[in-house]
Amino acid sequence: LLALCDDFGCFSDFGCFCDSGCFDVSGGSAARLGQAARRFSGGGGSVAQLRLQAAPGFALRSATGGARLLQRGARQLTADGVDQEGEQPRFCRPCPQIRTTNHAVSVKRATARNTTWYLKGYHSSALTKCDNQILKILVDEIQAKAFHHHTNGRPEARKIVWFGPEYTYGGTKISANDNWHPLVTSLATWLSVEYQLPVFNSCLINFYKDGSINIPWHSDDEVELGPNPTIASISIGAARDFHMRPKGSTNIAWSQRLASGSLLIMSGATQSHFQHAVLKDPKVKDLRVNLTFRLTRDGRIPEDLPVSDQANPCVLPVDSSITCDLDDEDSIKPASNLPRLSNQAHAISSLN
Ligand SMILES: O=C(O)CCC(=O)C(=O)O
Ligand SMILES: [Fe+2]
């Protein structure tokens, strides 16, 4: 059965959903898939989830298998919101092979002045087995839709594509786009299931044509994200340096060369206390595409999220959003002492 699943692999629109009953739904993964299914079936119908329930004895050998199953459901639903069970999905194209090579995202928490300043992780090879396939889909099918967003009335050099509800980005509104590309849907699901991250309902894709294109210093602190948002950032294509600096300072506190196929997670109070940027780098001649997955308020899944007057209900508690060993007592040191982590296989993001 395993072989059968592997034969189906990810290169089938039917994902790893085989009729042989080789799966087994359990625990958190099933709950996450249910959430994701509701999200990607438009919030109401939950057809993908029903399919899960309607298949006793079936389910998910692994979280990745589950993501594939869901991806299949999402694709079928994407056509016009109608469940096309039993029919060929309309989006008949091989999906990229999405596999983790290592489930652990190393996370460290830096504390200073008795405050948790940030919480983040970096996994250098989350998607390296299929980054070229993903890049091809991004270029062939998504790049043509990219546009120059305006900040303060001026177009930015960088082109973007947005999936999600209406969003205020850099002070200017981006229209809602519910027409999710299946690649982006499957990546969102994969992140949630494999890394126990929120079921993201929004994704911003940045296209950096070459090293002349940058993203200036900023925090991802849009009101739609609520306090302490968890943001998962996937980089594909040319490697670029990602920098962080404390707000109010021009000293770079931490840098990481973001490899193709890498995953960076920013969480906790990162956005409250730090800015980040990808600066111009004339040495870089090739395209880089970055996808940041976000959880925005408007697209939340009402039945799964607590309603509270106190806190934005779309934000999961920091410590439950990533399972990892936390290393508590790091302190912030000057930038000059900070190592570059780019050569480490599974670099640990920290300020020490
Ligand atoms: O390209 C990157 O790595 C960063 C993108 C980013 O910061 C953003 O989209 O807000
Ligand atoms: Fe950002």
From TrEMBL:
UniProt xrefs under InterPro entries: AlkB-like (IPR027450), AlkB-like_sf (IPR037151), ALKBH3 (IPR032854), Oxoglu/Fe-dep_dioxygenase_dom (IPR005123)
Annotated ranges, domain Fe2OG dioxygenase: 199-297
PROSITE patterns: FE2OG_OXY (PS51471)
Cofactor entry: Fe(2+)
GO MF assignments: dioxygenase activity
Any single biological process term in GO: DNA alkylation repair
Protein name: Fe2OG dioxygenase domain-containing protein
Organism: Macrostomum lignano
